[in-house]
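note to self: dont lose this again. the chain is below, predicted strucutre after it. 308 aa total, dont forget to put it in the shared folder this time
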Amino acid sequence: MVPGGPYRAVTARVSPARWWRPQCIGGILRRVSRTLELTVGLMLLVIGLIVLSSTWIGEWFAAHGFDTDLLAWWPLFLVFATVDRSLGHKGITAFIVERAFPGFSSDSLHGKLGVRAGNTGILYFSDCEVPVANRVGEEGEGFTIAMSAIDQGRYTVAAGSVGLAVACLDASVKYAHERKAFGEEIGRHQLVKQMLARMQQGIEAGRLLVWKAGWLKNQGLRSTRETGLAKWFCTDHAVQCAMDAIQIHGAYGYSDEYPVERYLRNSKGSVIYEGTSQIHTLMQADYLLGYRTDKPLRMPQPAWEGES
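---
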């Protein structure tokens, strides 16, 4: 990529928004999630997310290569690419790639442990030309854009994990009343009570973490630290709730006769995508030690203007 290369960026860049932004806002298009793990396995290292080689051709950006773990049937894709890996994250630029572009194709992937309702796929780029008008932000801002998008993704994962934990608790309480052992409901047994109580404890704490991060977002304040903490805590707790739910259900929990085995399969992905539990552990420690601080964004998220 040649900085300030031979293309018209000022007048053309806004044109894609005229058709895809209204569709996104109107609910026709939903969020597309992407988490590549071909090289480093961590979304926070955007340079590891990109396996494309690319060049500028006048007003077009040509790319070839392939990309994995996306919703492969979607009409729009937010793609990050670079031609100079030596620049690290400062060389990443974001683009909107449309399915109709020549040289673009996709295929579906199967065999996932959980979240099977979500279409995961692989994208192919064979000399795919993307107009400069489809560039998102400025050259080299791809990393910042990715991080701001991840803040939103982590928030939804945290909230969803609270819901999954609630589902585990509801199923376990119901079964604890139904199943009898030694002449009484298994809910009367102290260690079953302990598992149920831990579920409720984590649900309440996780819900408050999600609400705090949500409140900050509604105020237009950056919430990377708070959102990461919510994602880390809620996803870990969801996995533990699913494990305990299966334990409470006993042998039935190990089969698909009850939903708790599906809860475990679905919960496990959440501690991997949008940043692993391990990376969130390091991030929170770095915040505490002062090694990590959040810089102001060039285009921060605006405050919500709805009801207070």
